[in-house]
Write a structure and sequence with these properties.
Layout (H helix, E strand, L loop, with lengths): L1 E2 L5 H10 L5 H12 L12 H10 E2 L4 E7 L6 E6 L5 E9 L2 E6 L2 E3 L14 E4 L2 H15 L5 E4 L9 H12 L11 E5 L3 H9 L5 E5 L5 H7 L8 H15 L3 E7 L7 H11 L4 E7 L13 H13 L4 E3 L13 H9 L7
Parallel strand pairs: 1-2, 6-9, 9-10, 10-11, 11-12, 12-13, 13-14
Antiparallel strand pairs: 3-4, 4-5, 5-6, 7-8
Bound molecules: iron/sulfur cluster (SF4).
The site of iron/sulfur cluster (SF4) has 13 residues, from loops.
InterPro entries: Aldolase_TIM (IPR013785), Methyltransferase_A (IPR040072), RlmN_N (IPR048641), RNA_MTrfase_RlmN (IPR027492), rRNA_lsu_MTrfase_RlmN/Cfr (IPR004383), rSAM (IPR007197), rSAM_sf (IPR058240)
GO cellular component, one term: cytoplasm
GO molecular function: 4 iron, 4 sulfur cluster binding; metal ion binding; rRNA (adenine(2503)-C2-)-methyltransferase activity; rRNA binding; tRNA (adenine(37)-C2)-methyltransferase activity; tRNA binding
């Protein structure tokens, strides 16, 4: 059985054609699905015989809700979903004045090994399919009863480690036959896989690219991000410049501030030199402390001193709002604590 959400409209049309059905049925089926009708039997403008054919070839892969947490501090909601094969993934919905934003996962687990991240503790279990990424948005919209207008690929997983499925996802999420969310309302975050940054640049999409940099020197980056052993900061910055030249889009650099590691004004000065003259923006993230590592959140003073240095060097800087600290909102924390608390094997 195939998850029908893994198919784009052209592929569904092709399926209809090769199954002796009219191609226009593909658009009708797709309209139902994206309107929230997730049973073929309820698609009442589709002939019974076609519905039966669909039923025996496809399933509509909407995940099951396992747990839901709403932050008492703000209206952030975190969902733990079970996929068709029982694997667990999580996503976070954040409410802003300008609309609802969702942070979705792109893999079950992650193999990148960043020390500050709970998603990677059990390694990579598997890639998510295109449909499994789309369905997180669809299910979340259904649960909150409102449209989601911004998507961030910054949950569990490294999006560029699942490149093909992510690109197909971007296409469907953006399509008016899909979720119809503008490319400019989508942010894709990578820990810095250089070849893929360049490949993505060549696609000339209007999506925002965010780089998880988290250090201004290779030596410090290597301490928390094993990917730094493969790609130097210089190579990443080169790839970013290539991206900016190709797309004329501003890059966001994510920088998680960790006490006694990368939060001094000297680090801020080094970062300023690195980013000098680039079309970019720095997003400072007070690191989430997780039980499995010994990283400590930088103090508020250190965070604002860091910001001051960057701004004095004409680098646009923001401090990320801390969302849902009371609900383990950082990536991978909820899945991890659920697996532990319920003694579920990882990778079920
Ligand atoms: S921060 Fe992102 S890339 Fe790094 S381990 Fe976590 S999910 Fe993977």
């Amino acid at each position: 059985m195939t998850n029908i959400l893994d198919l784009n409209l052209a592929e569904l049309k092709q399926w209809m054609k090769s199954n002796s059905e009219s191609e226009f049925r593909a658009k009708q089926v797709s309209d139902w699905i994206y309107k929230g009708i997730w049973k073929f039997e309820n698609m009442n403008n589709i002939p019974q015989a076609t519905r039966e054919k669909l039923q025996s070839n496809f399933y509509i892969g909407i995940p099951e809700l396992v747990e839901e947490y709403t932050s008492k501090i703000n209206d952030t909601r975190k969902y733990l979903f079970a996929l068709n094969d029982g694997n667990l993934i999580e996503c976070v919905v954040m409410k802003y004045k300008h609309g609802n934003s969702i942070c979705i996962s792109t893999q079950v687990g992650c193999r990148m090994g960043c020390k500050f991240c709970a998603s990677t503790i059990g390694g990579l279990i598997r890639n998510l399919t295109t449909g499994e990424m789309l369905s997180q948005i669809m299910k979340a919209q259904h649960l909150i009863g409102e449209r989601i207008s911004n998507v961030v690929l910054m949950g569990s997983g490294e999006p560029f480690d699942n490149f093909e499925n992510v690109i197909k996802f971007l296409d469907i999420v953006n399509s008016e036959n899909g979720l119809n969310i503008g490319q400019r309302h989508i942010t894709i975050s990578t820990c810095g896989i250089v070849e893929k940054i360049k490949e993505f640049a060549d696609m000339d999409m209007q999506t925002t690219l965010a780089i998880s940099l988290h250090a201004a020197t290779d030596e410090i980056r290597m301490r928390s991000m094993p990917i730094a052993n493969k790609y130097s900061i210089a190579e990443i910055i080169d790839a970013c410049k290539y991206y900016i030249n190709k797309t004329n889009r501003r890059i966001t650099f994510e920088y998680a501030l960790v006490a006694d590691l990368n939060d001094t004004t000297r680090d801020a000065e080094k970062l300023s030199v690195l980013l000098e003259g680039m079309l970019c923006h720095v997003n400072l993230i007070p690191v989430n402390e997780i039980k499995e590592n010994e990283l400590k959140r930088a103090s508020n003073d250190a965070i604002s001193r860091f910001k001051d240095v960057l701004e004095a060097n004409n680098i646009q800087t923001t401090i990320r709002r801390e969302m849902g600290l009371d609900i383990n909102a950082a990536c991978g924390q909820l899945r991890r604590s659920y697996i532990k608390g319920n003694k579920v094997n990882e990778g079920v």
